[in-house]
Amino acid sequence: MGSFKGHALPGSFFLVAGIWWTGKYSLWHATRRNKSIGSTRLAGRSLQRRLEIIENSVVLFFSLVGMLAEQFLADGPKLQLYNFAEKHWEDLMNWQHATMYLFFGLAATVSLVLHSTEAAPLALDRLMLAVAFFNEGFLFLYHLHGRSMLDVHVHQLLLYAVFGQAIAAFLEVFHRGNIILELLRCTLTILQGSWFWEIGFVLYPPSGPEWDLTDHSNMMFVTMCYSWHLAFAMLVVGVLYCTVSWSVLPSPQQKRDGSSWRPHISQYTDKSSLSLSDHVAA
Amino acid sequence: MGSFKGHALPGSFFLVAGIWWTGKYSLWHATRRNKSIGSTRLAGRSLQRRLEIIENSVVLFFSLVGMLAEQFLADGPKLQLYNFAEKHWEDLMNWQHATMYLFFGLAATVSLVLHSTEAAPLALDRLMLAVAFFNEGFLFLYHLHGRSMLDVHVHQLLLYAVFGQAIAAFLEVFHRGNIILELLRCTLTILQGSWFWEIGFVLYPPSGPEWDLTDHSNMMFVTMCYSWHLAFAMLVVGVLYCTVSWSVLPSPQQKRDGSSWRPHISQYTDKSSLSLSDHVAA
Amino acid sequence: MGSFKGHALPGSFFLVAGIWWTGKYSLWHATRRNKSIGSTRLAGRSLQRRLEIIENSVVLFFSLVGMLAEQFLADGPKLQLYNFAEKHWEDLMNWQHATMYLFFGLAATVSLVLHSTEAAPLALDRLMLAVAFFNEGFLFLYHLHGRSMLDVHVHQLLLYAVFGQAIAAFLEVFHRGNIILELLRCTLTILQGSWFWEIGFVLYPPSGPEWDLTDHSNMMFVTMCYSWHLAFAMLVVGVLYCTVSWSVLPSPQQKRDGSSWRPHISQYTDKSSLSLSDHVAA
Amino acid sequence: MGSFKGHALPGSFFLVAGIWWTGKYSLWHATRRNKSIGSTRLAGRSLQRRLEIIENSVVLFFSLVGMLAEQFLADGPKLQLYNFAEKHWEDLMNWQHATMYLFFGLAATVSLVLHSTEAAPLALDRLMLAVAFFNEGFLFLYHLHGRSMLDVHVHQLLLYAVFGQAIAAFLEVFHRGNIILELLRCTLTILQGSWFWEIGFVLYPPSGPEWDLTDHSNMMFVTMCYSWHLAFAMLVVGVLYCTVSWSVLPSPQQKRDGSSWRPHISQYTDKSSLSLSDHVAA
């Protein structure tokens, strides 16, 4: 993946995932706040379950495609791990990327099983997601040996988003359905996606002059640029959340005739939102 | 901001913010403990909401002023990011400081929206505050390359306060209205404010001789001095909290006729204080 | 233990422990979900208690054997700590390994006392386990001075599993009976076990050529290999959990006649599973 | 304090504090489990409050004595901070130690106020304790510049206990009265005390030959020795806890006639023990 396209591709995946999740969680949260509309609620749950199954099937599909692409495209190792003739490991980079995909594929598989059977507690899907992100960060951490300063730095910055996602997902094991943690994870996912694009532009500029990878002021700019990406991700999540909320919530007139209290109080009590998050009824 | 005034100014802002917050949280906590006085309570809530809106408007205003000042005053970059003629980044320091203000401005904007509409769970304002402090610490962390030993050290000490504030604010997402966490955050805010002043005195002494920035015993003194600033911040918060509590609480005679139990028991149960913190009723 | 056998032996112990725990926790979790079958439940609890006592007796026995073996086998220090004649410490490696066994022995002893008397809260056994794992990681951390790069790296990777186990066990003090944390700990235990075998194969290859301990691409391969061991451990735990669940749970027909709701709801509420974990009734 | 006595003295204080706390918390825990004996309970609470006041007065007294001793004994700085004649800081070590005492004094003062008035939530005393331990660790962290390897190492090991105490005390803010956290803190306090003695013996051997402070095998021995101190501290806490429990709990005969269930169930529910910890009634 040492190319512009090799960073733009995973970046796009994470961007799409982040935006999709923001929409999904905003929708469920808005639906939970409108409990009065009984019929929508039941429909919502069975819809929710079906959506989870579709989402995880898509993730699983792309994980498999990613693993196969890393192995068999152009200069892949074609499942050969060690070159006994020349006594060296074969394309370790491709193998490492395939390993990252493997963990996201595992997380999707477990989610599929959880949402289509009653095999295990639902919170397991968040643990698997946390493990997948942790594994991604873990492999990146030992991935940077011997590169130039700026190259190391832009990848280290990526780790803030990746480990942040792992921590947020792990906290969701204990606070499932907490909209704030969910939006935090969405923000970090979008941040990771847009930062992959930024890495592509910095290390493999598609047009214009090369960056000086050893200049310290470049490093300072890149650090600040990471903050801007974070602000941008927060903006995207904020706009999406508000759009979804306002299109789903009842109009202000409806809210004024007394039913407006329930959603409001539920804001303060994590407990209630905890157990209603995903499909309680099958 | 490489000047005495450049450190005294943000220091003063944080000092004022810390003292204001201490007063505010002490007042709400004292009011929550006097539940018997029903009329004050309702007044308190609508007052609380209005105060939040005023507070966040002020923060937003100063963030905007700060960003504009960093850009357009004296030697600012005037929105120019890259000097293509001389091929170097334009005033990265000013851009970094403007970025810090940006995040506090974002936090204030989100708080304004949360407290004037019912768009999202209130706890989001603490997450935004945590992100703003984290971003400040993050930018400072990569800000120190190539400076002299004592300069690096005084800025590193600042990070204890900044990341401490980020952690305390993040914990408040889950334990909203916990007076102990709130006072901890106030203490760290005052510590950050007074330490900014100390940095100004150490690096740009307005009078008297220069400090030897490479002397190890200066470094040891400065470390200890940080502890003294913490003790001072704790003292300020303690005195303010007691003053506010004693001026709001009913006199001992009133407390002795039976109603004194409720506030006492509520000390032990975080739950009750959790959901009453900010304006429940509009 | 500087030999292939010296790494395979503890590896096997951890593999067995991880598999045993997976089976045990899966069984208790499946039993808790079938509350309708009242008779099995009571039997289950007294069985549970007896199993804990047997398990901890076995652990205690092997800890003692381990300590004695480290001291008195072949080249052990035979309880001599300092060689006053030659003025050097006697076999510090063996003493360190014996210390690790000591802490697992202590944890087993405390567990034995907890499960056979009512002396202290049950959660203490998890704290003791956390301390035992922490102590193992702590000793390994200062164990690596002056070794070759790959040797240090494979042992550092082990620390992820060891400290992960310590953290998971510590969290169980507050979330006892949380099946997700339990399975996480099982996974990390199996990971530690299989990684001990891997260390043996890398540092003391029983057949074939030696590894180049200073080659960076070997290090990259080993890092990725750690991820594969983790995936393998997750697979083993997953298969075991499903096997146990499906052999214990009532058949789908039984589940369809109304009793299926209770286990399902209990998934969402940690509280209920919290207090039923180990023997509530003696 | 660069002497054997200078390490033995604080070591003894921490040993006494650890043993005292173990006894106190074991006693309250045992009393809480015997709720049936109504009369003892009321006595217990007022006794509890009085004990807290006495304990904190003693801590405050010794903190003041410690601060005065560091300032005015033999070679103290006598409140002089900077020697303007010779242009150097005066006895920074003594000032640092006095600062450590100051924070323990502050914690004791706040505790005194909390337990004799109803000014603030009780949990504040644990936060103050956490801050005092954190401050001790913070000052030690920057205390070690330019010393020999073994000297640095024995002090770094101390930090595990000190920061461990800070974390345990901070967790107690949220889980007050959790006997497991309390005993963990007691264990770490005893560990800190006995390790201060060990530091004295290693760096300033009162008899026998000097230690070679640059020998790596000495460092490995000392690391292992720390584990032994931890095991010793756990043993002391365990023996004390059992002694107190068995002397306070009703005899087995009494337990068999039905009342034995209540204490047993309370083991599993942190909630109940949470709010009864310290004096609920004044």
TrEMBL record, chains A, B, C, D:
The lineage of its organism: Eukaryota, Metazoa, Chordata, Craniata, Vertebrata. This is Transmembrane protein 45a. The keyword Membrane applies. The chain crosses the membrane at residues 12-30, 51-74, 94-115, 127-145, 157-174, 186-206, 226-249. It comes from Oryzias latipes. It is a multi-pass membrane protein. It is found in: Membrane. GO terms for cellular component: membrane. Belongs to the TMEM45 family. The keyword Transcription regulation does not apply. Keywords: Membrane, Transmembrane, Transmembrane helix. The gene is tmem45a.
